Fold this sequence. Notes:
The chain is an all-alpha fold. Helices cover 86% and strands 0% of the residues. The termini are close together.
Amino acid sequence: xxxxxxxxxxxxxxxxxxxxxxxxxxxxxxxxxxxxxxxxxxxxxxxxxxxxxxxxxxxxxxxxxxxxxxxxxxxxxxxxxxxxxxxxxxxxxxxxxxxxxxxxxxxxxxxxxxxxxxxx
Length: 120
């Protein structure tokens, strides 16, 4: 079960690296604009906000990677903390920005957190 939990945590970390790339580097390019349904003008106007969001997603990914490589109990505690942050951010984003964030961010975080807790 611990291997499954670690794989799920790694997938959530990879998801947040993907979000970082989309928001910081591809926001004003075709992949970023089509992902969010923005035209070039809206992407240009919101790019600083997106880059800031991307940076925060990078911090979440870094914390999850830290949780994977640190020895326990620190690694486990870091996983629980950062997965909890992912869930809170996903719920908040789902309620205030776009409901699909609940499925794309909060749900994977919750599944990984549940697996991590069961594995310990």
